[in-house]
Structures are given as C-alpha cells and as structure tokens.
Amino acid sequence: MKRYGPAGIPLSSKGRTIMDGIEEVYMAGLNAIEIQMIKQIAEQRPPEDYEVGMRPEEINESFIVEVGKPIGDDYVFSSTGKEIIEEDDLLTVLYMDSVARNYRQLRFMGRLARMLDVKVGVHTQYYIDLISNDEITHRSMDNIMWSGVVAREVGADIVVTHIGPYGDIKKKEAMKRVKENLRELIERYRENGITAKIGVETSGKQEIFGSLNEVMALAKEVNGVVPILNYAHIHSREDGKLKTAEDFLKLFRKVRKYLGSEIYSHFSGVEYDNGNEIRLTPIKKGDLKFEPLAEALLQSDENFVLICDSPLLEHDAMYMKVITERTLSKRIAREKKEMEKLKIEREREESIKKQQKDDKKKEKEEKTPVKSVKKSNIEKKEAEKGRAEEKKEKKGEKKEEKKKEAAKKKKSGGKKEKSASKKKNSKSPTAKSK
User: Which residues, at least 6 apart from 214, have a Cβ–Cβ distance to it below 8 Å?
Assistant: First the structure.
C-alpha cells in the first residue's frame, strides 16, 4: 500500500492540533501524518495533592510523561503511565498543546486515526545530538524517549530522529557512541512498553551524521533501528544522484533487508551545493523530480509511507499522490496500447501464415494436373479392362449354360427314342399273332 501525508499539521487546517490535522488529512484524501515533537516544554515538579495515589494516565489536567522514584540521593524514572504517584516522587510534565494535553487525548487521537485509516508516525525535535555525550545528548535522549511515549499512546510504530553533527569527533568514534546511545534508548523503550522502532533519518549535509551507509550500519547492528529515507537529503549529500526510476529502485534494493514491513520515507524539493543541502523547497522547484520516484513506487511491491516535508506540506503531498495516479494511468494506457499492438501483429502473422499455406496448396495443385490426368486415365483403363473381363466371364458362363442345356436335351432325346422303339417292338408280336 502507498500512503501519503504531511509532516505536521496541514497548512489548510483551521484547528492547529494534530487531532484537527488527522481530520484534515482524511478530508483531503490523504492517509498519513507525522506528529512533530518540536514545540514542547518539559517541567519537573513534585506531585500536586490531588495527584498523589493516582496514575499519570488517569490525570487529565497534565501530561505526566515520567515519574521519578527516589533512590538514595537520585531518582529512577519510568514512563509506563501506570505508576502510582507518591508524595516524594518527581514528575516530568510535558506541555505540547499542538499534540495533546493528556493520555486520554492521545488515545482518542489514535482511535480516530485508525478509524479513518490514517497512518501516524512521530518525529522528534530537529536538533538532536547523540554524539557529544554531554548535557545536550542527555536532553536529546529524553526527547526521543518522550516521543516514544507519544507513539505508544497513539499507536504509532515509528519514531523518526536525526543523530546530530560530528563536531570534533572522528566518524568511527561517533558511530560507536551513536550505537551505544541507541541501544540504551531501545532498552528504555522496551522497559516502558514502547514497541515502536527508532527510525534514523538520512542527513543532507556532510558534517551531520547520517549518510546512507551509516544509517544502514546502525540498522544492521542495533536491533529495533530502521533506516528512514529522506530522498532530498540523499540527493543533496550524493550531489544529485537520484534522477531516474532505476536510481530509486537500486536504493530500495539496497536498504530492503534492513526494513520491516514498509519503507518509511520523506520527500520534498531541495537546493544543494557540493554535496550539502541548502534548503528544502516545493517539489516543483529544484532538480529532484517526483515522477521517477512515482514510476519506481509503481514498479516496486513494497509498502510505502511517503511524508511530505516541503514548505507546501499537504499541497505537495496531494501533488505526489496525483502524480503517482497519473503515472499509473499512463502506464495502464501504455500497456493496453502494447497489448493491442501485439494482438494486431499476431493477427497479421496468422493471416500471413494462412496466405502462405493457401499459396503452397495452390502451387501444388498447379504442379500436379498431368499426373492426375494420367492417373485418371490409368484408372479408367483398369476399370474398362475389369468390365471386359467381367463381360467375358459372363459370356463364358452363358456358353457353359447352353452346353449344359444342349447336353440335357440330347440326353432326354435318346431316352425318348428308346421308349419309342420299345413301344414299336412290343406291338410287333401282336401283329404277327393276328
């Protein structure tokens, strides 16, 4: 299945929450959306009196994303949403009004998305650093963790993140640190009932971790990590490599073994220079064209989620869907035309074969009339000879019959003469006696 949607709340949405965005996406004929965890503020505080004895998922006044239990001089945090809050706990409250205010809203959002068949993904903050291993890395890991909690509650199965700049760290050392931090995050995810995978997005600049090979290496060596293909970033970093449908198909084949059930990717127009992205643009601008990708999507049997992060968001997401449908229509028309052409050629070949067969038959008939006449004359003579012999046989039979009749007559005539002579002899003594 091919899914299209914007990175964040559609520009045309009157309401400015993800809930409104899901409805707007559905009304626009799209079927995917990415929750952007960008505008958020985290606060740590002790519990309110009314919160003690409750679970975070039961509290509607705030979104308590973590509960810290005191152990010695420190706290151990967990994010299941089911912890019983106690007086000495330390709560982490996340304010993200554009997404949701509590667990109840997140869960309702997930049910709405499933009912409308809108695929939901989650994207962490854009500035993430999993390399330097300082305070920024600590905050980055918290942000990825909280994004996982949101993914769990809305039913998203992917959390998309960047990795960050290399800085002064060598690439080999950076890879080692990133692997360690991602493994720790995956472990925290599983401990808190988060089943979503962490998707590492390809980067568009040489100084930022995230070449295609680096992303595939992470997916290969860290269980629970998958590559996120940002075509504009790959195109920029590799200095305009993605031009034909075959270029995209090669890319799909290259990353396929590191993916799950679908390819989650981003698309937009882009401006770049010497292997570095300058800015994202509307799809119709720049030299990264969507038509070759549309052709590759149609040739591939993969399931795709294609998120548009161009400045035009849902407008360009609709453009991608329309271009794919148009490409499919052209492909069907082309295949139909080719089938008709093949049919005409087949009929023509059959007609030629039939004509050749008829010509051979005619030629054969023209070459064999003398033979047929001779044959008929021979047959005629044989028939006449047979009739003459039959006539002769009949004539002989008649002669034989005549001979037999003559012999019979002769025999019967001799008998009569004898009987007559007997009569004559019998009369003579009587005459004498008289």
Answer: 175
pLDDT single digits (tens) 30-76: 999 999 998 889 999 999 999 999 999 999 999 999 999 999 889 99
Neighbours of 111 (CB within 10 A): 11
- pLDDT one-digit tens code per residue, 385-408: 777 777 777 776 667 777 777 777
Q: How many residues does the chain have?
A: 434
Amino acid sitting at position 14:
K
How far lies 250's CA from each of 3, 238, 289, 298, in Å? 21, 14, 17, 14
Coil, helix or strand at residue 336: helix
* Domain regions of the chain by residue span: 2-34+121-334
Specify burial of residue 257 (Cβ count, 10 A radius: 0-12, 13-18, 19+): exposed
Burial 120-134 (b: 16+ CB within 10 A, else e): bbbbbbeebbbbbee
What pLDDT does 240 receive? 93
Q: Is residue 94 a contact partner of residue 63, using CB atoms and an 8 Å limit?
A: yes
Using CA atoms of 139, 141, 143, 148 in order, give the dihedral in degrees to the nearest 10: -160
Q: Which residues contact 225 (CB under 8 A, 6 or more apart)?
A: 182, 186, 197, 198, 199, 200, 218, 219
Spatial neighbors of 292 by CB under 8 A, at least 6 apart, are 242, 243, 244, 245, 247, 248
> Of 312, 211, 295, which Cα lies nearest the Cα of 247?
295
Residue 375 in tokens:
């044959």
Reduced to 3 states, what is the DSSP secondary structure of residue 132? coil
- CA dihedral of 115, 121, 122, 127, whole degrees rounded to 10: -150
Q: Domain 2-34+121-334 carries which CATH code?
A: 3.20.20.150
